[in-house]
């Protein structure tokens, strides 16, 4: 019987240098050859899922922006945008609180031009997104986003930011003072459940592989939650199975463990 597997990107499919292990390429190809479905399920908004090597791996679709965007066979089948009023509030409050922000949409990103001087990820965004990356300051067009991320820097009034947005967003604190804001009631798990309902896929026939705090609900919601060996401790604690590190054939070993390849 066909199974469905959901893959996180960062720390799962590729490493910190965005290198996909050869064993992962081979494992996903074998999974597909065996008749199973494979989906990307990422916290990244769709606009930053652009790598041709990644997109050419044969995935059936993409759940992006922590469940707030879903596409299958290249067609958008679900999207949840923040309201225009909320976008303006985010820009205003984070500017007042000196917390540089990245607004993440399905086609474009909007990025603060101050405060990210020591963040190489922002340099990567401008380079990889090209004309689809915009500076927030002075931008007067429509801004359509699914979520946003921001950095805590010297002088940030983070307590006020949390107080302003705690009712509307799940606030996920990552390493190196990076904070992710996901609309409350949405997650990778809600994206998976929506897609499974849409395709009539039983949840107990699903698998997910991840490594970070925004993967916790995803791993708990599927039939079989798998943590990479390089996962953060809370992820390993709730996983059904912990595979090896990404650099040690983690994805391949996980799929072999469950007899999917």
Structure description:
The chain has 261 residues and is of the alpha/beta class. It has two domains: 4-79 and 186-257, Rossmann fold, CATH 3.40.50; 84-183, Hypothetical Protein, Haloacid Dehalogenase-like Hydrolase, Chain: A, domain 2 (2-Layer Sandwich), CATH 3.30.1240.10. It is 30% helix and 23% strand. β2, α2 and β3 form a beta-alpha-beta unit. The protein is globular, with a radius of gyration of 18 Å. Keywords: Hydrolase.
Helix proportion of residues, in percent? 25-40%
Q: Per CATH, what is the topology of the largest domain?
A: Rossmann fold
Mean pLDDT: 96
Alpha-carbon distance between the termini? 13 Å
Number of domains: 2
Question: Which strand order spans the largest sheet, edge to edge or round the barrel?
Answer: 5-4-3-2-1-12-13-14
Short characterization:
The protein has helices at residues 22-33, 52-55, 84-96, 120-129, 158-165, 188-199, 216-221, 233-238, 250-257; strands spanning 4-7, 37-41, 61-64, 69-72, 75-79, 101-104, 109-111, 133-135, 147-151, 169-173, 178-183, 206-210, 224-227, 241-242. It has 2 domains: 4-79 and 186-257, HAD superfamily/HAD-like (Rossmann fold), CATH 3.40.50; 84-183, 2-Layer Sandwich (Hypothetical Protein, Haloacid Dehalogenase-like Hydrolase, Chain: A, domain 2), CATH 3.30.1240.10. It has 261 residues and is an alpha/beta fold.
SSE layout:
Blueprint: E1 4-7, H1 22-33, E2 37-41, H2 52-55, E3 61-64, E4 69-72, E5 75-79, H3 84-96, E6 101-104, E7 109-111, H4 120-129, E8 133-135, E9 147-151, H5 158-165, E10 169-173, E11 178-183, H6 188-199, E12 206-210, H7 216-221, E13 224-227, H8 233-238, E14 241-242, H9 250-257
Parallel strand pairs: 1-2, 1-12, 2-3, 7-8, 12-13, 13-14
Antiparallel strand pairs: 3-4, 4-5, 6-7, 6-9, 9-11, 10-11
Helix pairs in contact: 1-9
